[in-house]
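User: Before I run my own analysis I want an independent prediction to cross-check against. Here's the chain; please return only the structure tokens and, at the end, one sentence I can use as a sanity check.
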Amino acid sequence: MVQPFPAPCDFVIPFHKKDAPVFFTYTLPHLLKNAIGLRTLFLITAKENQSLFPFHEFEKIQLVFEDLFPFTLEDVAQICQNRGRTAWYYQQVLKLYAHRVLKEKLLEEYVIWDSDTILLKPTPFFINDIGEISGLFAISPEYNPPYMEHMERLLPEIRRLNPLWGGVTHHQPWKKRWVEELLQRIEWRHGRNAWRAYLEKVEQKHWGGAGCADYEIMMAWTFTYFGSESTIRPLRWANRRELPEVTEDLDFVALHEHMMPLLPKSSA
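Assistant: Structure tokens:
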């Protein structure tokens, strides 16, 4: 009997120059070492950041410039009224549109990964079981009511299927088909571009905070309509200001910028 085995996948990571200290010191080397099945890392970034990447050192990296997308940071700022978290909302729609921009360059199976998230142990993200490839989802205890309210306004037919299955885990396995069908559903329901509808359904009072989460939307969408291709695989993880001691049994950590005053800032 053939046993399930890890399936190859790409990674898609939004990258801002402020992420450079964490990304080059921790994120990149740990992904290259521990992401089982990793083929290519696609970094979505501004053209001005190209000089940060000496490609002879990073053969698995391909840059995807933001100007290839059908919207700009300024477009998002206009919708968000430039309330302070424009870039945070911008990176969400960049991720949702990555497959449309990359097209055949991107494998069907890919992982969305936050640039400040450090994979500490060898970990697969898709499993091939006799030709059926399933995404392996981590879960979070987080429950943010504005995320759920945004989901209800955007697509009332989906919801979190289990109160313990929070989707905001700083990474997530996606398939191009899952995301494309999501965007088409949004466009059909709201009669306009998915990125615009996605942002316009955030309540104005949350423009300066956290009013929606692509990870929550995608997890609810996937387990509602593609449950046979999705598996909950709990991982041990935490938010940290520094890497944990080796005695702490964690699979990954998120090193958030606001928690890390000791790291040098990028001068780029």
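Sanity check: The helical segments are 20-34, 73-80, 86-102, 145-154, 176-190, 194-200, 214-225.
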